[in-house]
Amino acid sequence: SKKESEAIKMMYRIKEKRIEKNLSQEELAEKAGISRITISMLESGRQQDIKVSTIKRIANSLECPISDLIC
Fold first, then answer.
1. C-alpha dihedral, 40 to 41 to 42 to 47, nearest 10°
2. Residues 25, 43: contact at Cβ < 8 Å?
3. pLDDT at 48 over 90
4. Comparison of pLDDT for 62 and 10, the residue scoring more
5. Which SS3 state, helix, strand or coil, does residue 68 take?
6. DSSP 13-47
7. C-alpha angle with apex 7: 4 to 8, nearest 5 degrees?
């Protein structure tokens, strides 16, 4: 489905940006104020329902616009 393919794109983008910034999942989680498990589940595609506020926190922590993660 379209929603699933968008979630898969976002999952790769989060991981890609995190690695680009040389951050571990733990470090990103700490910066974003969310759990490492959430980061892990998002990156692996096991969690596809994500709040806009969580995406904003991740984007801010990765110092990128939200559009970099969801487009």
1. -170
2. yes
3. no
4. 62
5. helix
6. HHHHHHHHTT--HHHHHHHHTS-HHHHHHHHHTS-
7. 90
Q: Is the dihedral of CA 31, 29, 42, 12 positive or negative?
A: positive
CA–CA distance, 62 with 56 (Å, rounded to integer): 10
Within 10 Å of residue 4's Cβ, how many Cβ atoms?
10
Distance between CA atoms of residues 62 and 21, nearest Å? 7
Q: What is the pLDDT of residues 1-29, one digit of tens each?
A: 777 777 778 888 999 999 999 999 999 99
Q: Which two tokens stand for residue 1?
A: 């489905």
Q: Which amino acid is at 42?
A: L
Encoding tokens for residue 57? Answer: 């926190």
